[in-house]
């Protein structure tokens, strides 16, 4: 099953599960309880911490839930904040960080790169945690719409439509490989 956030990020071949960590968790759990899919492929837009360029396509099976305060040693968590469905040890995933906030501090978010975290998307950590709980193979495909700086929102708005077109083409061309 191919899923996406919805709202203004819809695809004719994907089911919307909600925006952010909470909506995604609620709706995807409900979906898995009543009609468990054979796989979950999430597609969506993402912000780059600096190593990926606008309109790059990134495939990943690993997500984190790290808040910005952790990077400045102003917070910690007792929870496991990384989840992965990648069972191929030869592939090193770009880690996708999820939060209900969009990062706009370029200097602070560059610190994510030292942890192997390359991009951010608001839903993916939730998708992989639900997939893990229901033992469903899962992955994600992302198109970069912005850098995590003060222009993040304006760049997202400017690049969102083209990013959705690029994602549609990429997923349709690679659907067999993406759903293994």
Automatic annotation (TrEMBL):
Nucleoside phosphorylase domain boundaries: 14-172
GO molecular function terms attached to this record: catalytic activity
Biological processes per GO annotation: nucleoside metabolic process
Superkingdom of the organism of origin: Bacteria
Record's protein name: Putative purine nucleoside phosphorylase
Organism: Sulfurimonas gotlandica (strain DSM 19862 / JCM 16533 / GD1)
């Amino acid at each position: 099953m191919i899923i996406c956030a919805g709202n203004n990020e819809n695809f004719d071949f994907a089911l919307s599960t909600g925006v952010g960590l909470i909506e995604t968790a609620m709706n995807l759990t409900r979906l898995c309880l009543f009609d468990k899919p054979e796989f979950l492929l999430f597609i969506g837009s993402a912000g780059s911490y600096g190593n990926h360029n606008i309109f790059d396509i990134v495939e990943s099976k690993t997500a984190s839930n790290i808040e910005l305060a952790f990077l400045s040693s102003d917070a910690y968590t007792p929870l496991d904040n990384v989840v992965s469905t990648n069972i191929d040890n030869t592939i090193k995933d770009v880690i996708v960080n999820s939060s209900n906030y969009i990062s706009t501090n370029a200097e602070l978010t560059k610190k994510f790169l030292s942890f192997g975290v390359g991009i951010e998307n608001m839903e993916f950590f939730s998708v992989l945690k639900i997939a893990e709980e229901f033992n469903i193979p899962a992955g994600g495909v992302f198109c970069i719409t912005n850098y995590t700086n003060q222009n993040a929102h304006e760049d997202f708005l400017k690049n969102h439509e083209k990013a959705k077109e690029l994602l549609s083409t990429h997923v349709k061309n690679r659907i067999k490989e993406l759903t293994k």
